[in-house]
Request: fold
Amino acid sequence: MTSRRTFLSLVAGSVVVPGFAHAQARPRKVALYANIGEELMHFDVDVANAALIRRDSVSLPAGVQYCWPHVSRKYLYIATSSSASGYGAAGADHHVSAYRIDPASGALSLHGEPIRLPTRPIHMTTDIPSQHLLVAFNNPSALRIYRINADFTPGAEVKQAPIDAGIFAHQVRVTPDNRHVILVTRGNEVTPQKAEDPGGLKMFDYKNGVLSNQSEIAPNGGREYGPRHLDFHPSKPWMYVSIETQNKMHMHRMQGGKPLAAVVYSKETLAEPNNIRSRQAASTVHVHPNGRFLYGSNRSQDMVDFEGRKVYKGGENSIVVYSIDQRTGEHTQIQNIETQAIHPRTFHIDPSGRMLVAQHNLPVDVRDGNAVRTIAAGLSVFRIGSDGKLTFVRKYDFEVGNKLMFWMGMVAL
Reply:
């Protein structure tokens, strides 16, 4: 569990952003990192005041896709790509870089040379002792494993027997006992031009960087099943999976360190599941550090014409909050709160469990009466109450141009 708790304790220059507090001299205990394209910004996290203080940034070889910290919290591994997201235009530059995290300030500095990847990485993790990097690729769907060298730099690929990596991998996670790997494959929704591609959870036994004994969880053969992300309870044998294309949150029990196939509980992620105004997509899921609450994000961003302009069609852009029954693992929705912006692709909870930050990747034009206004990309900050519920505090806006705010997270220093 150390690696997962470390990451929930995780992971986004020097230009001053209006609305941010001035940097303080004393070091902070938590750093937040968030990207705009290839720039990875660094902030101090003021949990008591639910505020972010802009510090500095580093420039990566291409757009940041995902990051994961070494279990020691001394290094941050950053996956980058010049490819567009989804099935967009393919680029040629794909890397994993290691950056040293300054233990006092959280500032990042390049550590060794990046390694090249074959295609766009969509997600990355380490195994529990941080001896290997596991990288998921969406197009074509694949899973590759790389050694972490003795000097903490990313190393050579560990060759694997052929595996079934499904369709559109979106996340890879190692189970808390370090004995199993789960590759979350979303599949693709049906369109007028193409039949549905099934989704599934591809599961493997795992030892010393090597995968074996593949199996699968795919309710209904993977039809009308589009899993995106999963998370583990910090102390109970329970796993929660966000089902992107059906806007559900599933709960699985685990046995022998491995999830069982049965979906024990399936709950709605939306506040109004019978009032879907545009395509809705469930996204990231995180269990609160105390194990009593569960959080997921809902996204929509379809557009319509309004007086010659494209404006947001309407829908839910929110964080859903569930309470978790500590006897059964059942999650019950207790809140659904709007994030004050469009398309909260990802969010993170600080290690103390008192603050949640949601990231919105693009500016979106919305209708405001007979006028049109733009809601900027940015970071929305919430306090987390003792009852698990969220209170919106503030939003930090960013000018992103033609780039994306694609990833963010926090690291305990």
